[in-house]
Amino acid sequence: MTEQHTTSTRRVALVTGGSRGIGRESAERLASDGFAVVINYAGNKTEAEAAVAAVAAAGGQAVAHQADVADEAAVAALFDAAEEAFGGVDVVVHAAGIMSLSPLVDLDLDALDGMYRTNVRGTFVVDQQAARRLRGGGAIINFSSSVLALAIPGYTAYAATKGAVEAMTLILARELRGRDITVNAVAPGPTATALFLDGKDEETIARMAAQPPLERLGAPRTSRRSCPSSPAPPAGSTVRCCVPTAASSEAVPLVRPVRGPGGQAGHGQAAARCHRPIRAARALIASLR
After folding, report:
1. Pairing between strand 265-269 and 257-259?
2. Would you give the DSSP letter of residue 119?
3. CA separation for the pair 138, 130 (Å, rounded)
4. What's the rounded Cα separation, in Å, for the pair 153 and 101?
5. Rounded to whole angstroms, how far apart are CA atoms 182 and 177?
6. 154 CB neighbour count, 10 Å cutoff
7. C-alpha–C-alpha distance, residues 183 and 175, integer Å
8. Are 65 and 92 spatial neighbours (Cβ–Cβ below 8 Å)?
9. Which of its termini does the chain have fewer beta carbons within 10 Å around, N or C?
10. Backbone φ and ψ of 171, nearest 5°
11. pLDDT of residue 16
């Protein structure tokens, strides 16, 4: 882990999958908003160090730490490292994930097991540590996917893992009632990241890019400007984003507030599905500043 000057007053964010794509953009955005950032990466140290350097060049604080998100000992050590560097953790953005595409009938079961290990077990392990160790007023932000709503052929296994992520998000939000910790999920549409582009030919990419009303893929760097602007939501409120489809360009609310006994709002929301996710994620943690 890269050494960095610690501070006890600055809010701290831990971003898994923070060395590339949406995770890196989230890390840089959080740093620009004043958070000290711990950038987790699976194996590419060069990319992680580049992300740390980008944060530092912009005047922020960041460290990088390698950990397999599905390994409970490695994730515990990741949180230990964050606490050692910055004194604690306030926000966890869990962006790590893998994707293998194939029709259900053809999918290799080893690929299915790999996705479940990283996307489902990984989310469980990261959220478990976050639930145990986040400071009061904190936030857990998981990443789902718009494929749950769009039902795109070839995404059966990946969508199943993201359905599990949404289930964990909703239930953990209820379990943390009274802790002053919100739990949310953001579900981006097709975004031009390595995770999305890898393994697809140009024809497939062009076809999927033509589906949204803007007829292009989302981009991590421009995603901060995508969803409808709103003040930071209180815990239990509805975060409204949209699923861009070929049939409609309207923002379609697809978020339900979590309700507790008697119908009162709980801590956390259902997944906010949006074409480009960074602004949605930023809104969920804006009230922490």
Report:
1. antiparallel
2. I
3. 9
4. 9
5. 9
6. 17
7. 10
8. no
9. C
10. -75, -40
11. 98
For strands 182-188 and 272-274, give the pairing.
parallel
Residue 139 token pair:
């936030």
Which stretch of 59-68, 145-154, 267-276 has the lowest confidence by average pLDDT? 267-276
Calculate the alpha carbon distances from 101 to 21, 56, 122, 220 in Å.
Answer: 19, 36, 19, 21
Instruction: Please count the residues of the chain.
Output: 289
- Tell me: the pLDDT tens digits for 21-36? 889 999 999 999 999 9
DSSP state at residue 191: B
Question: Which residues fall within 8 angstroms of residue 157, CB to CB, at 6 or more apart?
Answer: 100, 102, 104, 107, 111, 112, 115
Structure tokens given for 240: 């409204």
According to DSSP, residue 231 is labeled P
Q: What is the pLDDT of residues 221-278, one digit of tens each?
A: 443 332 323 334 434 322 324 333 333 333 333 333 333 333 333 444 433 334 445 5
pLDDT in tens, 123-134: 999 999 999 999
Q: What is the CA radius of gyration of the chain?
A: 18
Using the structure block, give the residue that is written with the tokens 């893992």: 161
- Containing 194, the helix (H) or strand (E) segment is helix 194-197
What is the model's pTM?
0.74
Q: Rounded to whole angstroms, how far apart are CA atoms 163 and 166?
A: 5
Q: Coil, strand, or helix at residue 248? A: coil
pLDDT of 217 > 60? The answer is no
Q: Above 80 in pLDDT, residue 201?
A: no
